Amino acid sequence: MIPRRRAHSPGVNTPHVKVRTPHEILSVIPYLFGFHPDESVVVLMVSDSLVGMGARLDLSDAAVPGRTADLLLGMLEQADRDDEVILVGYGADRSQVDLVLTTVSDDVRFPVQLAMTVVGDRWFVAWEPGEGEPYDPQSSQIAADATYLGLAAFPNRDELERTFDLPKGVARASQNVLSRAFRSVSAMTSDDAVARMVELLEVHAAVGSEIQQERGSLGLKDLAMLWALLFDGGARDVVWCLVSDATADRLLDLWLEVVRRLPQEDALLPLCVVALAAWQAGRGPLMTMALDKASRLGESHPMLDVLQAIHINAVPPGGLASMLESWAA
Known about the structure:
- By secondary structure, the chain is an alpha+beta fold.
- It has 16 helices and six strands.
- The chain has helices at 22-33, 59-62, 67-71, 73-78, 94-108, 141-148, 157-161, 175-186, 190-207, 220-229, 233-242, 248-261, 268-280, 284-296, 302-312, 319-328, and strands spanning 40-47, 50-58, 84-90, 112-119, 122-125, 133-134.
- It has a six-stranded mixed beta sheet, with helices on both faces.
- Strand 1 and strand 2 (50-58) form a beta hairpin.
- Helix 8 (175-186) crosses helix 10 (220-229) and helix 9 packs parallel to helix 11 (233-242).
- The chain is elongated and about 70 Å long.
């Protein structure tokens, strides 16, 4: 899900890509969601000619009457009364996709500004006869503009999910390393744990852009220590307080590295931090995947509950500041 776009703030580099035609809308969708959709329905909320929020559903889910309204309840409730929607269906059978788009249109109950069906290398205006037009999002100027702004689109969702996988030849932390880190944190006072978390994040920040090019800059023991520190409430609060427009991308890289280097069964809290950083970075698909992975571990945690509520209700990234203020009150 793509949360409502935050208002532009001076000094904040928020990527903006202008789209004016149906072909440009189709070209920008992979960059909004991080991958090229397939067997999917994309719902974009349009407010004052701007795309404010968006979501992708599996075609099979969207085909079930009422399912879209249930899955997108938070987003639809946030929409303004005068908003409209753009619907795009992706599939192998044009008539089937058109039927699904009809179901989705009935579910969302907002005026449909534009509906399109993508089948193979052609796209069509939904529900209208015609031979369609070529579909080649990579060849558009939009793709070049998005790439220049640092946006990426993986070939499919599976490729995006491999972002969480450990690269070949990179060592994973052993249980012994994790146990030692956990014992060290258990012996700390809460103030010491907070100070250690700040110290490690400052080391990471000092590396800056280099950590995006060089894996494991902090070292395996440090990454294990970051994991263990998340079990201390004060140290965990440090992460909540430090993530922002300016730091989100860098923290996302760091905590993805922590997740990759941990045994997956121990990754609940780092996955939550990945989701938090992805939310603030405007990387909705990564937030969704991180929360899905965390949920599949079968454990519960208040941090996971809060982030799932944020996701379901499509809370905009700017909502973090008011959340932190309410918690501090």
